[in-house]
Amino acid sequence: MQLDYNQSVSVTPMSYKKWVLVAISLFVIGLIVGFVAPASSVISEDITALEEFGSMLTSQPPIVAAILIFARNASVLVFSFLLSPILCLLPIAVLTVNGWVIAFVAALVAEITSVGFVLAALLPHGIVEIPALILGEAAALSFGSIVITGIFNKQKRGLIIPNLKHNLRYLAISLALLLPAAFIETFVTPLFAA
Predict the structure, then answer these.
(1) Is residue 1 part of a domain?
(2) What is the dihedral of CA 96, 101, 102, 107, to 10 degrees?
């Protein structure tokens, strides 16, 4: 049974809402693990990479730093979306590892400074960046799951293209949100975290 585009669009928004909840859950699982578990070698490598990226950013003019932050975050979302048909592994990893790293680093920094400092360093840009991450990864999970389902179920193959079109809109919204988040992270967050 092949659904036309209008029928599939009426189905897709509900499934996208479900994927937003799944994405939030995965991110929260990462946060919980980050607060209760010590850093593993995977997280240690991510933290080291973030430190190196941060060092590189400080040597750049602020506008270049903002563009590099946006490019890095946008490329993660785009690659995650494109590779999501591989068992949705990359979107799952991006959500959980980001939550884990945020929680682990926040706990370390809070021990050295204060919870107020951590909130000042995270909230200005995080209030935009984290929802952008969740929206983009929900789109990736939705698209990846329909491709995987379509491989095994001929009846669902007709939903792949409408699902792709629908989720590309959410990916575009997510990418659009990452741009102001990068500029807030570069220009506003340092004022609060000083």
Answers:
(1) no
(2) 130
Structural domain boundaries, residue 73: 14-50+63-192
Q: Is residue 37 part of a domain?
A: yes
Which of 116, 122, 120 is CA-nearest to residue 34?
A: 122
Q: What whole-number distance in Å separates Cα of residue 184 and Cα of residue 186?
A: 5
Query: What are 103's two structure tokens?
Result: 């929680």
Query: What CA–CA distance (Å, rounded) separates 148 from 144?
Result: 6
Half-sphere exposure of 42 (CA within 13 A, CB side): 10
188 in a structural domain: yes
The model's pLDDT over 85-135, given as tens digits with 9 standing for 90+, comes to 999 999 999 999 999 999 998 998 999 999 999 999 999 999 999 999 999
Structurally, how many domains does the chain consist of?
1
The model scores a pTM over 0.85: yes
DSSP string, 7-46: HHHHHHHHHHHHHHHHHHHHHHHHHHHHHHS---HHHHHH
